[in-house]
Amino acid sequence: MTALDLGLDLDREEALHLLTQMVRIRRFEERCVELYSAEKIRGFLHLYIGEEAVATGAMGALRPTDAVVATYREHGHALARGVSARSIMAEMFGVVEGCSRGRGGSMHLFDAERRFYGGNAIVAGGLPLAVGLGLADVMSGRDAVTACFFGEGAVAEGEFHEAMNLAALWSLPVVFCCENNLYAMGTALARSESQTDLALKAATYQVTSWAVDGMDVVACAAAARRAVDIARSGGGPVFLELRTYRFRAHSMYDPELYRSKEEVERWRERDPIEMFVGRAEQAALLEAGDRERIETDVAAEIDDAVAFAEAGTPEPVEDLTRDVYRRAVR
Ligand SMILES: Cc1ncc(C[n+]2csc(CCOP(=O)(O)OP(=O)(O)O)c2C)c(N)n1
Ligand SMILES: [Mg+2]
Fold it and tell me: Which residues form the Dehydrogenase E1 component domain (predicted)?
């Protein structure tokens, strides 16, 4: 069967890129779990495992001049955006070589050069930020789109409604990527929202919106391309409801009493990496040996990132008040 017969509108190079990015995210986070157990990484750690297709697919639609806003579950977005594994791992370790100088940690990855504006720990906190970035770009005459990633838990916050309204009212070039993984910590969507069709909800604000299979990296990439095209060409904001699932606990520890093991198993059968490999091999976009080579390269990249972080420098005592503001006493 040809790639197109299988719904894969991409070439071999693109297929290798998508697989590599998803494997990088998966393996990076698996290593983080080990480092967390070894107490090398401390604090909160929210894993994206299971959701890799969303960030991988969406990020490919953006230019370097576009902006990205994410949540505390953002390791994958940072990696896919081009923030180096070294500087992310160093940030996890809390050393000055980290992308936020070691002051942010897992939840606050930041890289102004790549227009990666966090890493935001407050649920829905990134949405007004994205609206502000979109407005600033328009007012400054910059041809840029802002992609804002957030969980479905954000739609219950007032900021979601304010952001949708203003983005639509001012026709801002923002693509809202709602990662609907069905749960906000232990709260299932249907227990907190009267309207669970999130694309419909966004549409009430006159925002172009539709739902996407968030486990299918090719569908995510196609949806993001279309959404970014609309936003870039003056069509106003777009809302994508990317239906996905996290395979792991909300944070590192969570008894997971809110969902059954069978439900998790059912979703694992739709593992975005394995599904993509299956289809791409069938379409002869991937060849024997590709997967193994990618795994080897990724393992080497992560080993290197961990060694870099291990050799990192703790912030010197003299820097403790750096960037800390205080009012001058007259
Ligand atoms: C304003 C606010 N309220 C509560 C919390 C605590 N909290 C952290 S994560 C989370 C769940 C968010 O779920 P969702 O938006 O679906 O994202 P997911 O974790 O599923 O990716 C909550 C309630 C918070 N960080 N910010
Ligand atoms: Mg969620």
Answer: 21-312
Which is the closest atom of ligand 1 to the Cα of 185? 11
pLDDT tens digit string along 94-131?
Answer: 999 999 999 999 999 999 999 999 999 999 999 999 99
Q: Which fold has domain 12-309?
A: Rossmann fold (3.40.50)
Say how far apart CA 134 and CA 306 lie, in whole Å: 35
Task: Name, in order, each residue with C-beta under 8 angstroms of 328's C-beta and a sequence gap of 6 or more.
Answer: none
**Which atom, in ligand 1's list, is nearest to the CA of 181?**
20
Tokens of 166: 């203003």
Q: Where are the domains of the chain?
A: 12-309
Residues 266 and 91: their CA atoms lie apart, in Å, by: 34
3-class SS at 227? Answer: helix
Spatial CB neighbours of 41, under 8 Å, sequence gap ≥ 6: 32, 35, 92, 93, 106
Beta carbon of 153 within 6 Å of any ligand 1 atom: yes
Cα 104 to Cα 233: distance, rounded to the nearest angstrom: 35
